[in-house]
Amino acid sequence: MSSAPAPSPEPITADAPASIASPLLTQSWLDLAFLHWAADPAQVAPLLPEGAAPDTLHGVTYVGLVAFRMHRVGWFRLPGVPYLGTFPETNVRLYSVDARGRRGVVFRSLDASRLVPVLMARAGFGLPYQWSRMDVRAEGDLRIYTSARRWPGPRGAHSRITVRVGERIGEPTELEHFLTARWGMHNAFLGRPVYLPNTHPRWPLHRAELLECDESLITAAGLAPPAGPPVSVLYSPGVPVRFGRPSRPAGIPTP
């Protein structure tokens, strides 16, 4: 259970607060569908790692279901890998803040279609990656995302999401910035809390209409099933991303 002191969050910023000159990882996130449901902070707090507390906007936190295409994951400044580093992914995430006020996300599950990256992420970063059969398709203004979990389970956890992409958003709302402008990830690895910073250009966001959402990933991640339709549905063509070296909540880099 999270035991973080009451944090004083940093401001929500649409642009990354700092650059990462020497990245640990590079990748692009493409064709993203963001679905979000409101949640009670008290209910999600036990699901966060030590050192992190629920991040809230006007007293509410959120559960996110985000489907997209991972493109060309690469280490350091090396070119991204075209096959093993390129695959569909769907994650279930929560919103977090640590005692230094750094806002981030906590991944409850990450389904991906390449087994080798799944094994590497589980072993190297302690992330709850799952190997799944997945597909992302574009049909005109429709985006269709499907997944069916293979390993480690629970087998049968699945999702099918269809959205219709709408107009470009000129100025996102406070909530839309809160849900998408996340500049780090809180996680626990080898019993120690860590924070992995990231940076990318400002999100190009579009309105989106949810046409279909048949999923069991949220309950498989230990959360209550969504009560009703999502409060926010967004689409983005994507951004290139850099991840920096992980640090502990106190700001001390890990070995």
Can you give a write-up of this model?
The protein has one domain: Acetoacetate decarboxylase-like, CATH 2.40.400. 10% of the residues lie in helices and 48% in strands. The chain contains four helices and twelve strands. A nine-stranded mixed beta barrel has the order 1-3-4-5-6-7-8-11-12. The radius of gyration is 17 Å and the shape is globular. The relative contact order is 0.23. The C terminus is likely disordered.
Secondary-structure topology with pairs:
Blueprint: E1 25-39, H1 41-44, E2 52-54, E3 61-75, E4 87-98, E5 103-112, H2 115-125, E6 129-139, E7 142-151, E8 158-168, H3 174-180, E9 184-189, E10 192-199, E11 206-215, H4 217-220, E12 232-243
Parallel strand pairs: 5-6
Antiparallel strand pairs: 1-3, 1-12, 2-4, 3-4, 4-5, 6-7, 7-8, 8-11, 9-10, 10-12, 11-12
InterPro entries: ADC_dom_sf, DUF2071
Pfam families: DUF2071
Protein name: DUF2071 domain-containing protein
